[in-house]
């Protein structure tokens, strides 16, 4: 943890019933308790923490993301968590990318909210750390396929927070990479593509961790966002078949989970928003992104006469 104001304490108990007296007291004293758990355990822990008197609960699961009494933690769209809020729901990775690229356009009535098709592509880390046959290296490398078509659990969350009565046709596809997410939404515009882009530029002018690119291309490459809190957005330059593509790329483990939770935490506690976060990109990325391979590859040895 590289945060100057946070001293993390990790609960060792596997369930609320396993907590000893010292652990219960520690949880009661924490400024914030963060839950990085699946839906059901998060629900159980939330109930226990409320009973213990925990001051604030930051939930990274999908248990309360549509609860009207819980702040939805996407600061660029819904503002900072109120200082007196007891709960913050951290958004999912696909909802984060989709909402950042589309909600400002729906709010301004620049696209038809019921004519949206979304293709979400993600690395294998988005499936969690559980063992599954389709995630084995020999089955995934050099391969790509759709999954949970029409039944992905993030569909209700996305439609709920898009607003405007939005409905989406949502298809997800697994990529043979570890992390990174590229979401392409096909929308029916009420204005030209350039006006869509201008609306996004205007909305995110004061939000440094969202970059609206001049046009889609290699600048959206996942290598530009992996390891960062940045979200990259672009709008297709021309409408074909009455549709315009709106694209967004993020790191599903950072902007789609951990760094977004930290961003919410900073705002919730009245700290500087960027404490502990990677700095925003100084310029919009372009060209081929650096890859992990290029970052860790050892330097070439100098020429030698010896074999």
TrEMBL record:
One of its GO terms (molecular function) is NAD binding. Residues 20-78 form the Semialdehyde dehydrogenase NAD-binding domain. Residues 93-252 form the N-acetyl-gamma-glutamyl-phosphate reductase dimerisation domain. The active site is at 93. It is an enzyme of class 1 (oxidoreductase). Residues 280-307 are annotated as: Disordered. It holds the Pfam family Semialdhyde_dhC_1. This is N-acetyl-gamma-glutamyl-phosphate reductase. It comes from Enhygromyxa salina. The gene is argC.
């Amino acid at each position: 943890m590289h945060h100057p104001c946070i001293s993390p304490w990790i609960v060792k108990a596997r369930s609320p019933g396993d907590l000893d007296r010292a652990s219960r007291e520690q949880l009661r004293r924490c400024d914030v308790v963060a839950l990085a758990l699946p839906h059901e355990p998060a629900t159980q822990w939330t109930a226990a923490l409320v009973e213990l008197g925990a001051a604030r609960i930051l939930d990274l699961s999908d248990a309360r993301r549509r609860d009207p009494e819980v702040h939805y933690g996407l600061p660029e769209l819904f503002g900072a968590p109120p200082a007196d809020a007891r709960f913050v729901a951290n958004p999912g990775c696909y909802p984060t990318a989709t909402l950042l690229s589309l909600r400002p356009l729906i709010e301004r009535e620049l696209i038809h909210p019921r004519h949206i098709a979304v293709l979400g592509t993600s690395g294998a880390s988005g499936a969690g750390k559980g063992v599954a046959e389709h995630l084995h290296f020999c089955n995934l490398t050099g391969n790509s396929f759709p999954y949970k078509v029409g039944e992905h659990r993030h569909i209700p969350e996305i439609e709920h927070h898009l607003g405007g009565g939005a409905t989406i046709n949502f298809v997800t596809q697994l990529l043979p990479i570890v992390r990174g997410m590229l979401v392409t939404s096909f929308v029916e515009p009420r204005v030209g593509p350039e006006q869509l882009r201008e609306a996004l530029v205007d909305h995110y002018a004061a939000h440094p961790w969202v970059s609206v690119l001049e046009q889609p291309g290699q600048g959206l490459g996942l290598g530009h966002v992996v390891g960062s809190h940045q979200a990259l957005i672009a709008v297709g330059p021309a409408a074909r078949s009455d549709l315009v593509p709106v694209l967004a790329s993020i790191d599903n483990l950072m902007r789609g989970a951990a760094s977004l939770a930290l961003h919410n935490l900073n705002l919730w506690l009245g700290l500087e928003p960027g404490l502990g976060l990677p700095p925003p990109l100084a310029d919009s990325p372009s060209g081929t992104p650096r890859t992990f391979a290029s970052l860790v590859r050892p330097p070439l040895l100098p020429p030698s006469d010896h074999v």
